[in-house]
Fold:
Amino acid sequence: MKKPIADLHCHPSLKPHLNEEIGSIWDFRENPTVDEVFRLVSIRKLALRGLAAKLALKTQSNLDSCFKGGNRLVFCSIYPFEREFIRPDRPFKRAALPVKWALQLLLRKRYKKAIDTKLIRLITGISPGAAHGLLDQIHTPGARVNYMDDFREEYEYLLASQGPRPKGAIANWHPSFRLVQNASQLPTADDQDKIAGVITVEGAHAFAEYPLEFLREDMGFEDLPQTEQAKIRASFRQNLGVIKDPDKTAFPPFFVTFSHHFHNFLSGHAKSFSGLFSRVFNQEPGLEAGLSSLGREVLELLLQRGPRVARILIDTKHMPPVVRREFYHLVRSRRRAGDAIPIISSHSAVNGLASLEEAIRNNSNSRAERRSYVSKFGINLTDEDIREVYDSDGLIGICMHDGRMPGRKFKRKLRAVRAHPEKAKRLYAQMFLTNILHVVRVNARHLESLRLSGQDSTALLTAWDTVCLGSDNDGIVDPYNTYETAADLSDFREKIVEAFKTQEAPYMKDFRILTLPEEEPIKPEELQKLMMGQTPEQLADRIFYDNIRNFLERYFTDAYRFEGAVV
Structure:
C-alpha cells in the first residue's frame, strides 16, 4: 500500500475558526470573489482581480482535501493574525509616487472600515463579523491586543474538531481526525482512514499581550517604557506556564515559529514581502534586528522542560540571518553540554548563498533576484543553515510557494508555460527538486568534510534525513498554480517520482533539476550519486512521509519533551 503524506506546516483551522459560514474544518470553501465583495464597476475591482489571482482564495488544507490528497499527518499551525497584517500602511509614503497614487486610489488614503472589511474578507476568507472585530480593535486609541486569546480560540476549535467526518463516509472510507500528544499515538501507515494532527504555532507573539501603539514603532524591547516591558514579560511568563503544562493544555505545541511577519519585541524578522505587498504593509519596525533580552529569555522558557513542563522546539523560518546565527550558537553550546535541540525550518526554500554572512550582506536586495532561478532573500536558507540543521538532527520542510521560492528567472519561465498545465507541473517539480537536491548535496559534502577531517560521521545516506514537505497551505500564500490544495498532494508526489525517472527525456530538457549556485542542469552521474542507490519511490517516501515520522519518533515523545531522553 502506498504510504500516506505528512505536511510539516499548514493551517487547516485558520479560516474556518474565524468564519461560521464554513461548516467545519473538513469543508472546502472558496473566498468571496472580487465581484461579490465589490459590486460596483470600478478601477479598484479591476486592480484587485489581478492581485487576487496570485493568492489562494480558497481553503487548501481543509480535511476533505487532505483526505483526498493522501495527507494523513497534518501539522496544524495556529496563527493569531498579527494586527499589522490587517492594517495597510496608509498613506503609503514609502512607495514611489505613481505607486503611492495607485494605492491611495485602490485602498483609500485614509481608513474606511467598509473598504478594509471587504479587503480582509477577500484575502483571508474570514467572516465580516470577525473582520469587524479585528478592525475595531486596531483602530481604538490605546488598545491592547492579547494574542493568547486568539491562540486559545483556535486551539479550542481544533479540540472540538476531533472525531469522525461530520458529513459521514466517503465511498467505503470512514475518515476521522484526532490530535496526538506524542508519537506513540500516531496511526500506522496502513491506517488510511485516520488523519492525525500535531499542534504547532506560527509566531511567538501568540503568547503575549501587546500595546498596539508600540508595535508600529521602530524601537527595541529595551526602548519601551519600563511599565510596558514588565507587562509584556509577565504575559509571556504567565502564558507559557499554561501552554507548557499538559495538565492545563492537553496538547502543548510541538514547535513554534519564533518570528513572523512583524514586530514582536523578541527578535527581528526577515523580509517576507516584496513587490506591491511590501508597499501595502510596513515590515520596517524590527526588520532584520537581533534578539532582544526578552527574546533570549523567551527562548529559554520555550526550551525548558521538566516532569510537567513540555519543551517547545524552535522553528527558524522568518528569523533573519543575524538571529539564526545566534540561535545556532545556542544550539551548538547546548549540544556540547549533552542537550540535543533539533533545529526546524518548517516551510522553507534555499537561496544558494554560501553563508549567513553573505545573506546579511545581500540584505534581501531585490536586484539579486533579477537573474536568479531561486530567491536570494535572507528568509531562505543558506548552505550554512542547511549544515546547522543537519548537525542538530533537525528538519527542513520545503514549501510550495510561487512567492518566496523563485527568482525572476523562474517567474519568466512560469509565465511562458502558464497556459500549458503539463509543462507548468514539470517546472514546479524542477523547483521543488532543485531545493531538495541542494539540501542533500550540501549535507553530503558536509559529511565528506567531516570524514576527511578525521571526525566521526554517520552513513552518507543520512544526507536525505532532513528534507520533507512543508506546504504552508492556507498560509495566505501564492501557491503552485497546478497544485493549489492538499487534494493535489498525491498527484504532486507522483510528479516528483516521474521527474526523477525522466530527467534525461528530451521533453525534460528545460525542466531538469538544477545545481546551485551554478543553475546548471544536474549531470546524470551526479544525480545517481545523490540518489545513493535509492529508487525514486523510496526517495518520495522519505520526502513526503518517512523523514517526518522518524523525526517524531525521536523528538515528539514524552521521554524527550519532559525528561530529555532521545530515542
The chain is about 40% helix and 10% strand. The CA atoms of residues 173 and 343 lie 37 Å apart.
